[in-house]
Amino acid sequence: MDMKLLSVFDEIYKTRSVSRAGENLGLAQTSVSLALGRLRRAFNDQLFVRTSEGMLPTPRAAALVPQLRQALELLQSATRQQAEFDPASSCRAFRLAMTDISHLEFLPALMNKLGNIAPKVRVEVLRITADTARLLEAGDADLAIGYMPELDAGFYQQKLFRDGFACVVRRTHPRIDKNLTMARFKKERHVIITAPGTGNEIVEQELKRQGAQRNVALSLPTLPGVGNLLAHTDLIATVPHRIAQTLVKIAQVKAIASPYRLPEFAIKQHWHERYQQDPANRWLRSTLAELFLEI
């Protein structure tokens, strides 16, 4: 049982696909299939069965995961000094769990950068959910990016930047020009974005502490599309400042300072300790950190 076989087992388990496992490992699909055949003979079990949802593990394979991953980590640790990651030639597929803020803020810049320095690398974007911590631990997500205080404990993290809040309304709003008073803020109808990582809970808590109350007319589960909504209504949205600036560029809206003092918050990237020394993960983290400095 060598490291190649253990890596094939782990990638098929994570990706539920022979072809994607091969892409992530830089192996031909036939090589992965042969390795899977050796694994099946070694354990006298099918291990992975093709279904409508991909290559799903058998009970035997699921039971083997903790032990085989421990063995794989020991082998990787022993050979880590020789491990390298070449972005220019890699066909690796990275899975990034993102909040809507991260999605809208820097995904275009990330893809442009990867096109220049890692043209064969692919990116799969996942939504931040209650399952994100498990995905990071299992290796089903490489990084989680955004405002996620629930991941501050138990995961490695790096602060990318701090952000505040601004109010956004349509450019031709009939009652709001360059300034927004507390009285007008209270009277106008608001849209709130409840998606994880958009900071709405920070705004709600701070407004409540200051004794202010919004007239909430609409709640949205996602951030994309709010620019067009604001451009065609008299609604107000209170969003992170960087998002406000992005909305100004892509929609007929304007950003105005909030009449209430609202706290800043940190946008971070998070990863599990299993991948702290992984060359590919380290390269990705470094690339993202540089990218945020450029934006």
Your description of this structure?
The structure is a single chain. The chain is of the alpha/beta class. The chain has helices spanning 3-15, 18-25, 29-43, 59-78, 100-117, 132-138, 182-187, 200-209, 226-231, 241-250, 279-294, and strands at 48-51, 54-57, 93-98, 122-127, 143-146, 156-163, 165-170, 189-193, 215-220, 236-240, 253-256, 265-271. A 5-stranded mixed β-sheet has the order 4-3-5-12-6. Helix 1 packs across helix 2 (18-25) and helix 1 packs across helix 4 (59-78). It is elongated, with a radius of gyration of 23 Å.
Overall geometry: elongated
Mean pLDDT across every amino acid position: 89
Element order: H for helix, E for strand:
HHHEEHEHEHEEEHEHEHEHEEH
Number of strands: 12
Strand order of the largest sheet: 4-3-5-12-6
> What summary fits the major beta sheet?
5 strands, mixed
Q: Which residue ranges are poorly predicted, with pLDDT under 50 across at least 5 consecutive positions?
A: none
Distance between the termini: 46 Å
Which class best fits the helix and strand makeup?
alpha/beta
List keywords for this structure.
five-stranded mixed β-sheet; alpha/beta
Question: Could you outline the blueprint of secondary structure elements for this entry?
Answer:
Blueprint: H1 3-15, H2 18-25, H3 29-43, E1 48-51, E2 54-57, H4 59-78, E3 93-98, H5 100-117, E4 122-127, H6 132-138, E5 143-146, E6 156-163, E7 165-170, H7 182-187, E8 189-193, H8 200-209, E9 215-220, H9 226-231, E10 236-240, H10 241-250, E11 253-256, E12 265-271, H11 279-294
Parallel strand pairs: 3-4, 3-5, 8-9, 8-10
Antiparallel strand pairs: 1-2, 5-12, 6-12, 7-10, 7-11
Helix pairs in contact: 1-2, 1-3, 1-4, 2-3
